[in-house]
Amino acid sequence: MECCDLSQLSKLIGSQLKAATGRRTPGSWNPRNRWRAMDAKMTSMNKWTLLTVFAVLIGAIALASASGQSDRTLLLQPDNPEVNQRAPDVTHVRLETTKGIIRLEMRRAWAPHGVDHFYNLVRHGYYDNAAVFRVLAGRWAQFGINGDPRVAQLWRSRAIPDDPRVESNVRGTVAFAFKDPNGRTTQLFINLRDNSATHDAEPFVPIAKVVRGMDVADALYSEYGEQAGGGIRAGKQDPVFAGGSEYLKRNFPRLDYIVKATIEREP
């Protein structure tokens, strides 16, 4: 969901104030004198203009707040059609991490179920402030457990059907992690090396490729290894789902995070 550009509104307010009050005159540094001068120069029309602009700004802030609340509400409604939309044939995703920006390209032809699922989760903020909790240096970097335990638990069992593998698990590809057939939910990993020899046969099905920021992926904090939850198959993720980001930040403070994941608008 998109909202108004608040920086532009701020500039508009500034221009209206200037138009209404004129330039500062010598000796107007005194705040009391300045406000008296402003009041004297402002016409009824200028006052109404300022009131209108401020009303628009307040409305924009309220809309932004409502948008965020709407997204959170939708994450608690996994059957809502809004979070089950068809993704475009080609989509670009921007992952703003604590180490830098990673950009992904997704194509539905590679894995339609997986691409649609990731697309909807990104659109509604599921991956915002989510930890990259399992990083094995030079092998893979895994993420995808929401920091709010209520949201994470709700989506933990929302599995999607398997897709046949089209692309190979070479360096820079992104695939869903899973334990059982038709068991992909929200967790994904970035292949930090060519893992095709082991991963293609599973099959782990790539849904996206890193097109920029592979150096950022390589730099994600990896010293905790399997300690901060580990993989799905190890069966040790319950504390992460129960405690969320608070648990991870308390016990694994050096983990990197996805600050925000967004669908990039095509030029």
Q: TL;DR?
A:
The chain has 267 residues and is of the alpha+beta class. It has 8 helices and 9 strands.
CATH homologous superfamily annotation of the largest domain: Cyclophilin-like
Please state how the strands of the largest beta sheet are arranged side by side.
Answer: 3-9-1-2-8-6-7-5-4
CATH class of the largest domain: Mainly Beta
Beta-strand content bin: 15-25%
Count of β-strands: 9
What is the end-to-end distance? Answer: 18 Å
| Coarse shape | globular
Estimated structural class: alpha+beta
Under CATH, the topology of the largest domain can be stated as Cyclophilin
**What helical percentage do the residues reach?**
25-40%
Describe this protein's structure.
This protein is 39% helix and 19% strand. With 267 residues, the protein is α+β, with helices and mostly antiparallel strands. The protein folds into two domains: 6-75; 88-264, Cyclophilin-like (Cyclophilin, Beta Barrel). It has a nine-stranded antiparallel sheet with strand order 3-9-1-2-8-6-7-5-4. A hairpin with a 2-residue loop joins strand 1 and strand 2. Helix 1 (6-21) packs antiparallel against helix 3 (44-75) and helix 5 packs antiparallel against helix 8 (238-251). The radius of gyration is 24 Å and the shape is globular. Mean pLDDT is 84; it is low at 1-6, 20-28 and 53-70.
Helix and strand topology:
Elements: H1 6-21, H2 31-41, H3 44-75, E1 90-97, E2 100-107, H4 112-123, E3 130-132, E4 134-136, E5 140-143, H5 149-156, E6 173-176, E7 188-191, H6 196-199, E8 206-212, H7 214-219, H8 238-251, E9 256-264
Antiparallel strand pairs: 1-2, 1-9, 2-8, 3-9, 4-5, 5-7, 6-7, 6-8
